[in-house]
Design goal:
- The structure holds two protein chains of two kinds.
- By secondary structure, chain A is α+β, with helices and mostly antiparallel strands.
- Chain A has helices at residues 7-17, 80-94, 116-124, 137-146, 187-198; strands at 37-38, 49-52, 57-59, 67-73, 102-108, 131-134, 151-156, 159-165, 168-171, 177-181.
- Chain A has one domain: Glutaredoxin.
- Chain A is built from five helices and ten strands; from the N terminus they run H-E-E-E-E-H-E-H-E-H-E-E-E-E-H.
- In chain A, a hairpin with a 5-residue loop joins strand 9 and strand 10 (177-181).
- The longest helix of chain A is centred in the middle third of the chain and has 15 residues, at 80-94.
- Chain A is globular, with a radius of gyration of 17 Å.
- The relative contact order of chain A is 0.23.
- Chain B is of the alpha+beta class.
- Chain B has a single domain, classed as PCu(A)C copper chaperone (Immunoglobulin-like), CATH 2.60.40.
- Chain B has helices at residues 3-24, 154-157; strands at 27-35, 43-52, 56-62, 66-77, 80-86, 89-91, 96-99, 104-111, 120-129, 134-144.
- The radius of gyration of chain B is 17 Å and the shape is globular.
- Classes of the chains: A alpha+beta, B alpha+beta.
- Strand 8 of chain A pairs antiparallel with strand 5 of chain B, so a sheet runs across the interface.
């Protein structure tokens, strides 16, 4: 498949630059992404503490060795949330075996309505490996603030909908924030930048 | 099949045709679809393209599968998705107005049950012309998978 991105091309390039660059994430403070935003110098989202749909407490370190892709949303979101999750599932497929370490984490911004059961069924409809996190409204507010997520309830008849930041945040396998993927990017563009994150460690 | 059954079917068929012919006289609804839900998910979205012969507006949508149906507008700025209800959507004469995941869409809220992929959802669409005449259009919207990828409209996203 020609759209499949191999690690070899990137590795060859890095080899030419010397092994020094490969010695660790901390030694390469910035990355060159083709489409997304480099967030390597941003200190965000490091200390969130929420629950997964099994009720276990989860922090960023729970995902060590994986490449977490964090997206905030809500299951009653008709447009950007399903589109972004479907895009993540497609990017994961495009990455082939490299996609196995990609861990999509969907954090609900609507903990009053999104129960763990609905959240679990919802994210797994996109990819069985996807995880959803929830917490009390206060805990969600703290996590959202850590990531600089804007969200607000918009009245809609007897109920409400939400406006919210649609960026996906990508960490490397050591838990350093690396990349911000905007909602406008395609699955292919995301896959290309995600592979760049993978080459760091 | 008896002759009576035949006749009944024929009559029903003709009635549907009549409805369709009437509908196409003013506003055409094409590519209508509804997004599937998982069990317990209380809302979903409906999408379609509307083309009016004369300046009109979409005023409401109803369906037996949801207690409350609203028209919402979504917009993107600086990667923040903003959402909110609107009273109506303008349908300028001859222009195909898309209700898609990148802009206006119909919110089906308070669903009576799970919306399953492959089924059909009846939608009753009410449009009002500039003269105040109302037209009601019935469509059967096919249900698409929750994880279906839509074509992102980049022109609106930046």
């Amino acid at each position: 498949m020609s759209t499949l991105f191999t690690r070899r091309t990137v590795l060859t390039g890095m080899g030419l630059l010397g092994l020094g660059l490969l010695s660790g994430c901390d030694s390469s403070p910035r990355l060159n992404f083709k489409y997304g935003k480099d967030l390597s110098d941003k200190i965000m989202g490091r200390t969130f503490k929420l629950k997964n749909t099994e009720g276990e407490t989860v922090t960023l370190s729970s995902y060590r060795g994986l490449m977490p892709v964090v997206f905030f949303g809500f299951t009653q979101c008709p447009a950007v949330c399903p589109t972004t999750l479907a895009r993540a599932a497609q990017a994961k497929k495009l990455m082939g075996r490299d996609g196995e370490i990609m861990q999509v984490i969907f954090i609900t911004l609507d903990p009053e309505r999104d129960t763990p059961e609905i959240l679990d069924r919802y994210v797994k409809a996109f990819d069985p490996s996807f995880e959803a996190l929830y917490g009390t409204p206060e805990e969600i507010a703290v996590a959202a603030k850590e990531f600089g997520i804007f969200y607000e309830k918009i009245p809609a008849g007897d109920t409400y909908t939400l406006s919210h930041t649609a960026t996906s945040f990508v960490f490397d396998t050591r838990g350093n924030l690396r990349l911000g993927l905007q909602a406008s990017l395609t699955a292919k563009e995301c896959a290309e930048d995600l592979l760049t994150v993978m080459e760091v460690c | 099949m008896t002759a009576v059954q035949h006749l009944k079917r024929l009559t029903a068929g003709l009635a549907l045709l009549g409805l369709a012919a009437h509908a196409s006289a003013q506003v055409q609804v094409t590519d209508a679809w509804v997004r599937a839900t998982v069990h317990g998910q209380p809302s979903s979205g409906a999408f379609m393209t509307l083309t009016a012969d004369s300046d009109s507006k979409l005023v409401s949508v109803a369906t037996p599968v949801a207690k409350d149906v609203q028209i919402h507008e979504m917009s993107m700025k600086d990667d923040v998705m903003r959402m909110g209800p609107v009273d109506s959507v303008a349908l300028p004469a001859g222009k195909a107005v898309k209700l898609d995941p990148n802009g206006y869409h119909v919110m089906l809220m308070g669903l009576t049950g799970q919306i399953e992929e492959g089924s059909q959802v009846p939608l009753t669409i009410t449009v009002e012309t500039a003269k105040g005449e109302k037209q009601v259009i019935q469509v059967q919207a096919p249900v698409r998978a929750l994880n279906g990828m839509e074509h992102m409209d980049h022109s609106k996203m930046h």
